[in-house]
Prior knowledge:
Layout: E1 4-8, H1 14-21, E2 30-33, H2 35-41, H3 43-51, E3 56-62, H4 66-77, E4 83-87, H5 92-102, E5 111-115, H6 123-130, H7 136-150, E6 154-156, H8 162-168, E7 174-177, H9 196-202, E8 206-209, H10 211-214, H11 219-230
Helix pairs in contact: 4-5, 5-7, 9-11
Amino acid sequence: MGKDVIVACDFSSAQATFDFLDRFTDVKPFVKIGMELYYAEGPSIVREIKKRGHKIFLDLKLHDIPNTVKKAMAVLSKLDVDMTNVHAAGTVEMMKAALQGLERPDGTRPILIAVTQLTSTSEQRMQDELLINASINDTIVKYAQNAKKAGLDGVVCSPLEASMVKENCSKQFITVTPGVRFADGDVGDQVRVTTPEKAKEIGSDYIVVGRPITAADDPVAAYKRCCDAFIG
């Protein structure tokens, strides 16, 4: 499996998204559509970006009772996305239901990954506010093992945890890692961050990069910088 850079298109409208994507004339980046854009524009934005030739990670982080998640995933799978996700905290049963819902009549399905802990969550917040007394590393490993047990393809985790997840699950278990910033950039509201170079070294399979590319003076150059550092 090849490594890839996923560009987080965290825009509030279709127009802003297309204005950004139109700048990429020679390459079609793998893009992430998150809650803001999906809730603003609905399924049509997914269909249009797909029609333009981009791979899509639909980042909606489903977390509900198993039957509800199964039915929602059956709807999302018809959008022909390439990757989607759930919260691992929803339990093994919910993750299994998500997989069942995603499978298309021809047997294909998008890559399904689970969020372990958000990159904005520190160990102190997790323990003080969520009352999870285990360390953040132990929690992430356990959630990843649950995702693997459910049959998922991998997890979303910070790049700092990618190698730990692979050691405890398998080298083939996919790690999709947000929280990637250039060494000379701003970390924003994320706590557990690293650079594209370090993410490659650690063993991330996909890195998700938002503002360092989307807010750059030259997004195409910033995207190329990321790809050169992470993919080589």
